Amino acid sequence: MRVISGSARGTKLESLEGLSTRPTIDRVKEGIFSSIQFVVPGARILDLFAGSGQMGIECLSRGATKGVFVDSNRDAVNVVIKNIKACNLFDKARVVNMTAQDYLGSCKDEFDIIFLDPPYNMGILDEILEKVYQITAPGGIIIAESELGWKPATEIDGLEMVKQYKYGKVFVTKFQKES
């Protein structure tokens, strides 16, 4: 797993061993970034359920101005910190060790791009999506990775599902908040 583009291009990223995290495969990451590439420079990003931090790091490498990385797993947080340092992006990043729900309950920031990649089959994506909407900047983008076939349980006024992409057994859903 490497950074695809930008100032940290080619930097090898570590991931947590075992099955507790699921790094986004390169093909999926490339597809996501081709769809948001023009929004990334200058963006404020949130990498919720950060795992290795690769999605947020990719944004910072491509010119995002601020990145917040949240994960409840202490070992994953240590991997994120190590990866951010390896990419020389620590001055743009903040790493938080808490649950997504706790972070969203206390967050006062607003983000232009938010990545959601919660554990599959736990049924929390719908709950998280509603909370994330509140901290998404007008015109902001939410990228949700999920198991195949996931659709939001309810519509959120002011949030449009732009597109769903299928990559093998992975669904990537792109949402945009009204401006």
Keywords for this entry:
Rossmann fold, 5 helices, globular, 179 residues, alpha/beta
What does this structure look like?
The chain is α/β, with parallel strands linked by helices. It is built from 5 helices and 7 strands, in the order H-E-H-E-H-E-H-E-H-E-E-E. The chain has a 7-stranded mixed sheet with strand order 3-2-1-4-5-7-6, with helices on both faces. Strand 1, helix 2 and strand 2 form a beta-alpha-beta unit. The longest helix has 13 residues. The mean pLDDT is 91.
Quick recap of the structure?
The chain is α/β, with parallel strands linked by helices and 179 residues long. The chain is 27% helix and 28% strand. The chain has a seven-stranded mixed beta sheet with strand order 3-2-1-4-5-7-6, sandwiched between helices.
Number of domains: 1
SS-based class = alpha/beta
The residue-averaged pLDDT reads 91
Q: What is the third-level CATH name, the topology? A: Rossmann fold
Spatial order of strands in the largest sheet:
3-2-1-4-5-7-6
Number of E strands: 7
Number of helices: 5
Helices and strands in order:
Elements: H1 26-36, E1 44-48, H2 54-61, E2 66-71, H3 74-86, E3 93-97, H4 100-106, E4 111-116, H5 125-133, E5 136-147, E6 159-167, E7 170-177
Parallel strand pairs: 1-2, 1-4, 2-3, 4-5
Antiparallel strand pairs: 5-7, 6-7
